[in-house]
Amino acid sequence: MTSRLNPYLGFDGDARQAMEFYQQVFGGSLALNTFGAFGESDSPHAEKIMHGMLETPDGFTLMASDTPPGMEYSAGTNFSVSLSGDDEAELRGYWEKLSADGTVAVPLEKQMWGDVFGMCTDRFGVPWMVNISESAS
User: Fold this and answer.
1) What's the whole-model pTM score?
2) What are the transmembrane regions (predicted)?
3) Quick one: which of 15, 87, 101, 126 has the fewest CB in 10 Å?
């Protein structure tokens, strides 16, 4: 897999409806994963979207989630730029440069879904998410 760069949208509880709408607009394949599917099945947000991804026939990729518990939703700043792929050296290099002189919200480390993931805001105020999946080779 090559690395990809795409928008990542945040929602205040209606990510499922939004992503289903975008699928109607753009077509394509939609995958939705809930917080409940990742160990939070007894929580009030179990059916909310932890991660959703729409991949369209035209090559568009749109990702989204509901605001995680403990984080505040803020309309107008409810986006991030997502970098993802399986080239660990390349993506770690991007992370180092993006997080330098910025703010790290989630350190780049292994997560409950098995990938290495981190969130930071660069020195210009742009929020980034980096996800490194295991290489298929």
Assistant:
1) 0.73
2) none
3) 101
